[in-house]
Amino acid sequence: MSKPLKQAIPGLGGVLAYFWPYIRPQYGLLLVSAIALIADVGLRVLEPWPLKFVFDYVLIRGDKLNNIPAIANLEPMTLLTFSAIAVLVITGLRALAAYWSTVGLATVGSRVMGKVRNYLYCHLQDLSLGYHTKARSGDLIVRVSSDASRLQEIMITAALPLIVSILTLFGMIGVMFWMNPSLTLLSLFTLPLFWLITQRLSKRIRASSLKQRKQEGMVAATAAESIAAIKLVKALSLQDAFARVFAQQNQRSLKESVKTQRLAAHLERTVDAVIALGTAIVLWYGSWLALRDALTPGDVLVFLTYLKNAFKPVQNFAKYTGRLAKAAASGERILDVLNQQPDVRDLPDAIPAPIFRGEVRFENVHFTYESGQVLLQDINLNIQPGQQVAIVGTSGGGKSTLVSLLLRLYDPSQGRVIIDGRDIREYTLASLRPQISVVLQDSILFAATIRENIAYGIAGVSDAEIVAAARLANADDFIQALPQGYDTVVGERGATLSGGQRQRIAIARAAIRQAPILILDEPTTGLDKGNEKAVIDALQQLSENCTTFLITHDLDFATRADIIVYLEHGRVVEQGSHVELMQENGRYKALYEVQNAMRNEEITHAKAS
Fold first, then answer.
1. pTM of the predicted model, to two decimals?
2. What whole-number percentage of the chain has pLDDT above 90?
3. Where are the alpha helices (DSSP H) in 229-352?
4. Do residues 144 and 279 both lie within one domain?
5. Does residue 3 lie in a domain region?
6. HSE toward the beta carbon, residue 95, CA cutoff 13 A
7. 58-97, pLDDT tens digit by residue?
């Protein structure tokens, strides 16, 4: 196998290592397909022989040709009839064998790549936030959809014909050697020339294909980013700016596509010229041998037919090497994702978590990003079951990062996060996260019904439980007023609902989990006073009997907490109840008084107007 072809099969060992568990269950279908494939090759080798018999024993019946008595004694029309029937039978059987091998291997390919795509998607879901913050979502979507489809399609439309072509080539060369070794060696004279051309060009095709796939990923990423933020794009009149960037990336992608096609066409046409040279040599030398009675005219016909069919695999090799190069680019991009390991994963001896009581401790916790940026330093907190903790402080102080450690979206660089007396890294992620409900500042809803959005991730939820959760979240009234009620389909990301409505559905989604630990990350930011009051009332009901972590900039909201933690530059600078912190005359008191003064000023202005 040439080096370019080896390169065109993306990390052969790695591909087999990942895909073999999915291929192995298809053993029976693979066996049937392999038998059909071998039959297809054998019948291809037999195809020209009826023509030889017609040529040598029907059209030309000289004594020197009648070297097979059983055939020579047949009447010409009888032999012609048998030969015609043989052509039909051989062609029909070969078509049937080719059908079964193609359909069988295509079915295996579809089943395997379907499972691989599922695994790829789940693996992407499992990768840590650190990976996703660096990756571009549009490019990842291309890898899951387009790259996986291309790998499946090309492995069926290129790899299968290439296997048939190679086996047919060896079969025909073997028969040709049996017929006349010298003519066979001469016919193979052009193979080294073909090999050199293929090696040089297929490497360039593969490199160009990989670059093209990367450009396509960038195009998809730009489109995904602009569409996801379409409201902001329109508000800031950024359509032209994004259009220019998209056009530039699209042009680069098209340029690489044209380059790949040009190289592939160059390879195919060069191979055509090499094949014409080989055919001319065999035609001249084979006819010269026939004139000297070293071969029969039928033998020359078989040789030329074999040569044409033998070089057809060579042509296919040139054509399919280009296609395989595209599959190689897609395969490398898929394996690049599959080779990524989550930073946060279950330890080998992790156990399922019991039902939590809600005691949470942070012991000497430090957290640093890969870039070296320090987010948290020496965090020590002790929260009893059912207590409410407000985490306040300056922007960028590490508030969201702190609660992300509780969910194990990240793991501490140093120290431990403990729930009910046990390091949370000792629990499985699947048993830890369902026991922690989350309501974010910008709660995301999915393009599904409100009923489905509330019940997502919880199996066996009844309609009564969904309605009860919505009522707790003060959402039942507005849901009932919608055209289809709980069966109303919301737009992608909940775009058809107001911010307050989305937030209350998110609260209902948290409520239905009945988790012992609750995280509220700026849940009222951006809401008007009416919606803010409805959301706060819902949150108060939701947080009853829960250990609650509230991240907020609104210190009036924070005064209701049992413990207030003031974070600054990743450190706890103050900790205590509202009354205790006001008595300390520290940063919390200063910020509270500023906010209170601003609030009073707003009330005064409102009354004056």
1. 0.64
2. 9
3. 230-235, 239-291, 297-338
4. yes
5. no
6. 6
7. 666 554 444 566 666 667 777 778 878 888 998 889 889 8
